[in-house]
Structures are given as structure tokens and as C-alpha cells.
Amino acid sequence: MASNDTVAINPMAEEEHVTLRRVAVSSFLGNFIEWFDYASYSYFATVIALVLMPPGDPTVALLETFGVFALSFLMRPVGAFFWGHMGDKKGRKWALATSILLMSAATFVIGLLPTYESIGILAPILLLALRMVQSFSASGEYAGAATFLAEYAPANHRGLYCSLVPASTAVGLLVGSTLATLMFVNFGHDSAFVTEWGWRIPFLLAGPLGIITHYIRTRVSDSPVYQEMQDKLEAKGESDDKPIKLLLTRHLRPLIISFGACMLNAVGFYAVLTYLPNYLQDTVGYNAGDASLITTICLVAYVAFIFLSGRVSDRFGRKKMLIIASAGFIVFTVPAFYMMNTENFAIILIAELFMCLLLTINDGTLSSYLSETFPTEVRYSGFALSFNFANAIFGGSASFISIALIQATGNPIAPAWYMVVISVVALIAMCLTHDNSKKKLTDIK
């Protein structure tokens, strides 16, 4: 008799898998949009300066363009308070679905801005206003996406799933730089196509990408961990209406420690992935094309390293990984900078790849570490405040401080010593922390 046995499929398990996939895709896309915009603004800065800033000295116009970008970082802490509070009070889904619309809309409108020639001083003023809206909205994206993923992911794969968030950062930078490079190679920096419409394309793409991400996020329920907390509060007749106050009064120590851990991530990310190409060209005098090629290779390797780091952290724990990253930067940053001053392609590539590996040990672990540091009622707030304050204070200033240190000391290795100091602070913070990587998120108090 023929067997009619079939493998039973658990509808509940299948539904959970589909939901987790939607959460993962929307988290990846949301953070990708943010960093694709960041890369586009940076790589098209000379064109934006020409189109939207007052005519005259090109150097002054470029400084004004980057000044607008720097000023927008002031909104990061403000956004961290708002989105952290709302994410803990109204839910992760509400905060993420709302923030992506604001962020992508502001980015999209930048692509529609009239030129300085058309509306005069209103052009840079509108650019600054839109960058501030974008920065305000984006400050809840990284923390919210990682928190949402952590609360949905299986406990034994939490690090791997959370590594999607920093991976999307690198992919956003890579796609933005690739698009700009292709456009400049094929049309030229100052061609009519680039100055009229070419530079607008990456910003306009944020519109449809944001709508897609918003749609996916509205198709999933809030995380089971968050819903469980809300059910318990309702059963007790309580409400979690002051998460920021609760964070600052009962969880101040882990907040300060997390800020210390985020300092290394902030300085390391901006130094390794955005400052080093400029360092090679301006300080070392290295060929711009080769410096760009090395950066592209490192970004590709960075994505692979990120997933590996997240996977390894699931096995060995977040604390060990973050301590290794801190110690690695303390020991190897100065030698790496000396290697980059050799002007040898292979040696520079090895040095940057090793720095990328160290950064990914930190970056691929940090999002899951921060998600596991705070209890559910203040998880979004704790993550958002520690991460965004560190990036606003240390991340946005990393390139400026590095250049200033070289000018003040005359020593091209000075930025490396700054990185070492930051790494020491992060190492101390990690030695004072607790490892919650093996715990259920509902057990973290």
C-alpha cells in the first residue's frame, strides 16, 4: 500500500517566520535609507554646494554645505528623547512606522529643492530645515529597528539578526558611493546632467523606499515582548507613561556604561569608514582613486564581517566581543596608521581591513548588547539616548577632531592616539557591564 504520510507544517511557526522576515526586511530598509542619504549628501557635497549655496568661493560653499550637515546632528539627541519615549510608551511599531515617513519625506523633498539661483538664500535655509527633520527622524531608526528585531528574534540568534542593522548601514554607504562614482565617471562632476538632476536621484529614491518600508511595518504586530509588558501593566491597572524618567532614575548606571560603549562605535565608524579615505588623500598624499578603491573593498568586507561578528557573539557573548574590540583598537590603531603612511597599496589595504574587522566586532555586537542592557519598559529609550548622544558628540566630530589634532601637533599619527583614548574609555565601560546575551529579554530587570 502506498504511503500517504506527509510532513505536518505548523501554521503558527510559519506565521512567526513570515513576521520575523518582514521585521528583518523593514529594519534593513529603514536604516539603509538613512545611510544611503548620508552617503549621497557626502559624495555629492561639491555639487550641492554649487547648486544650493551662495555663489563665490567654492571652498566656502563646500564648508557651508558640510556646516548644514553638522548642524543637523544637533537634532539627534532631541530625536532620541522623543522617539525613545514614544517607542516605549506607544510601541516600537508606531515609532518606526511614523519615523520612516518623516525621514524619507524630508530626504525626498531635498531632491526637489529649487536652486540658489531660483530662490536665493531660501535654498540653503530650506536645506538646513529638511536636514534637521531628517536627522530628528533618523535618530529613532537605528535604535528602534534593532530593538524591534531583538524582541522578535530567537534568543539564540539575536546577535545575528541584530547585525542586520549595522550591515544595512554599510550597504547604504556602499550603494551611495557607487552611484556617485558611476555618475561622476560617466558624466563628470560639473556636467549639466549631474548639476540639474543627477544629484537629486538618490534623494528622490528615498520616497518610494520609505513608502515600501512603512507598508511592511504596518503589516506586523508590535513585538511579543512589548505586548507582554503591556498586558502585565493593564492587569495591574498601571501605565508606562514616563519611560525617560524611569530610565534616568532607575537605570542611570547602565545608561552611562552604554554611552561609554557607544563612544568607540561612534568614533570608530566615522574614522574608519569616512575619515580614512580623506586622511590618505590629504595627509598621506595618496592617490585618490586607489584610496576610493580601498574604501570600497573595505565596505564589502565590512558587511561580511558584520554578520560573522553577530553570529560569533551569539556563541561567546556580547561582553567578550566588545572587550576584544576595545583592546584591539588600543593595541593596533597606532601601528595601522603607521602602515597607512607607507603609501603601499597592499599594506594600506591590510591595515584598513584589519581596522574594519575590529570595528565590526564592536559594531556587529553593539546593537544586540544595547537591546539586552535595558528592560522592556525603557529598552527603546536607553538604546536611543546612549547611541545618539555618543554619535552626536563623538561621531559627528570625529573627522574634525582628527584634522585639528594633526594641525595642532604636526603629527600625522595623532588621530590614532585619540582613537586609543576613546578605546580605553570603552574598555573600562565594558569591564563594568553585565552580559545578558543568554537571558530572555523578559528576564532583564
UniProtKB/TrEMBL annotation:
One of its GO terms (cellular component) is plasma membrane. The keyword Transport applies. It is a multi-pass membrane protein. The keyword Membrane applies. The chain crosses the membrane at residues 35-54, 60-82, 94-113, 119-138, 159-185, 197-216, 255-276, 288-309, 321-339, 345-362, 383-406, 412-432. One of its GO terms (molecular function) is symporter activity. Gene3D superfamilies: MFS general substrate transporter like domains. It is found in: Cell membrane. PROSITE patterns: MFS, SUGAR_TRANSPORT_1. Its main location: membrane. Residues 23-438 form the Major facilitator superfamily (MFS) profile domain. Keywords: Cell membrane, Membrane, Symport, Transmembrane, Transmembrane helix, Transport. May be a proton symporter involved in the uptake of osmolytes such as proline and glycine betaine. This is Putative proline/betaine transporter. It comes from Adlercreutzia mucosicola.
